[in-house]
Amino acid sequence: MSELAERPAVAGEFVLRGAEVLDRSGRRRADVVVSDGLVVAVGEGLSAATVLDAGGCIITPGLVDLNAGVGQPGYEETETVHSAARAAALGGFTTIVARADTHPVVDSAAMVKEVLAFGAGASCRVLPAATVTVGAKGERLAPLAELASLGVRLFADDGRGIPDARLLRRALEYAAALGVVVVQFAQDPSLAAGGEMHEGVWSSLLGIPGIPSEAEEVVVMRDLALARLTGGHLHFRTLSTAASWAMVSGARRRGLRVSAEAALHHLLLADAACAEFDPATKFRPPLRPEDDRRALQATLAAGEVDCLVSDHTPHSIEDKEVPFGEAAAGASSLEWLVALALTELTLVDVGEGGDRAAVPVGLAELIGALSWKPAALVDPASTGLVERGTVADLTVIDPTATWTLDPLRGASRSRTTPFAGRALRGRVRHTIVRGVPVVIDAVAQR
Q1: DSSP states of 371-419 as a string?
Q2: What is the pLDDT of residue 11?
Q3: What is the tens place of the pLDDT at every residue in 361-406?
Q4: In angstroms, rounded to a whole number, what is the distance separating the alpha carbons of residues 96 and 88?
Q5: Is residue 350's pLDDT more than 50?
Q6: Is the pLDDT of residue 172 over 90?
Q7: Is-cis flag, bond preceding 285, omega within 30?
Q8: Taking Cα atoms as reference points, which of 414, 397, 198, 193 lies closest to residue 310?
Q9: Is residue 38 part of a domain?
Q10: What residues are labeled active site?
Q11: Integer distance in angstroms from the first to the last C-alpha of the chain?
Q12: Which of the pair, 346 or 120, is modelled with greater confidence?
């Protein structure tokens, strides 16, 4: 259970005062007035019956996570939709897309409706993804049109991907007609078979079977060709190698409808982090070498990362407190992603030798990958702006707040993270969902 206390939410009109607004149009000093679920005024010197202090903070369009495991249905002992949503709201997310890798998987209208029902009254908006194929078995397509009619935008056979090129071609053709997105987990199962970490120097030293970078890259190469063939929108899950990102960037320059996401752990950790055999450092895809990590940071700094995701993957203690090779892959991350990103991604080292240039990851690039870019994938009508008339999904971040990451005090039921004990700079002060403050002064309200 989270130790955060419950408090009644602010009712009626209120103003976020003393902040700067950062959205797709830029950054400026402004107060924001919210009423009846909408932003009704943006400017300096505004007032309302209730004031939420945002002094020294940054107000952004609500953060959106496209890749969150919510456990429910089937794995409620590790997470529920409500516990995941509470952690997400504390982390500044106003919307999360729940992965379809539940038990059973989300591959039917009934399952989509069930996840939506689970999310009713949750601390943030919970949108279900659905699988591309029935049962996520990669044999025949799920009823994509029916699921799209229910509002599903992202379709993914998470953790498995679609190895059959002909089936993926058909899925992309349907996606082009329906206006939805096919999400691919890029890992060739034959090359990755038996691997537990990245195949390289560290896997050899540690005696752990490895997964080569090529297991990801050959899938990216093939699937980009299929995106070109079909015109469908292809989105890659948690790409982890420099070559993969270079291929995606090149495809975009050629006009392909392709996007990709990066997981925070691939930006902050390299495969050397596995040297202590800590199961908290086991991920899918695995942590890559330092050169890949730095290249991914540089890609984020250049604004080439479409979405920065938590890849929140809750597990029980029994699944993680076992030898590295037997442990489940993944960690809990929704609640502290923003603070970790602000703390660790201020500077990026690039270049060779001792004379390395320091390239800052701009706040606009970071927030864009957390806010208006992923928002556009789940809602093409999203403006990415904080302006009069927009839905009041807002995140208020205090960039100077300092605290220590203690997973035992978090809202998620899962406690696994490789970042426990990190001293952090930056914290979400308020989270507003459809005009309702669900987090006030870093305290959950529901």
Answers
A1: THHHHHHH-TT------TTSB--EEEEEEEEEEE--GGGSSSS----TT
A2: 54
A3: 899 999 999 999 999 999 999 999 999 999 999 999 999 999 999 9
A4: 7
A5: no
A6: yes
A7: yes
A8: 414
A9: no
A10: 311
A11: 13
A12: 120
The answer to whether the CB of 296 falls within 8 A of the CB of 242 is: yes
The count of structural domains within the chain is 1
Q: Helices 363-370 and 290-301, interaxial angle, to 10°?
A: 90
Domain with 279 in it: 61-382+403-409
Neighbours of 278 (CB within 10 A): 14
Pairing of strands 58-61, 394-404: antiparallel
Does position 359 have pLDDT exceeding 90, yes or no?
A: no
Strands (E), 55-170: 58-61, 63-68, 93-98, 125-128, 154-156
- Number of Cβ atoms within 10 Å of the Cβ of 208: 20
Q: Count other C-beta atoms under 10 Å from residue 358's C-beta.
A: 10
**Is residue 295 domain-resident?**
yes
Give per-residue pLDDT as tens, 211-239: 999 999 999 999 999 999 999 999 999 99
Length of the chain: 446
Alpha helices of 254-379 — where are they, by DSSP H? 264-268, 290-301, 317-320, 337-344, 363-370, 372-378
Residue 18 three-state SS: coil
Residue 283, domain CATH: 3.20.20.140
pLDDT score for 7: 34
Average pLDDT value over all residues in the chain: 93
| pLDDT score recorded for residue 347 | 44
Q: Which two tokens stand for residue 330?
A: 């993944």
What are the angstrom distances between the C-alpha of 351 and each of 51, 75, 291, 414?
47, 45, 10, 38
Return the CA Rg of the chain: 21
- Amino acid letter, residue 429: R
Q: Is the dihedral of CA 131, 134, 140, 145 positive or negative?
A: negative
> Which amino acid, residue 309?
V
For the whole model, what pTM was predicted? 0.94
Q: What pLDDT score does 346 carry?
A: 61
Q: In this structure, is residue 373 part of a structural domain?
A: yes
Q: Is residue 26 part of a domain?
A: no
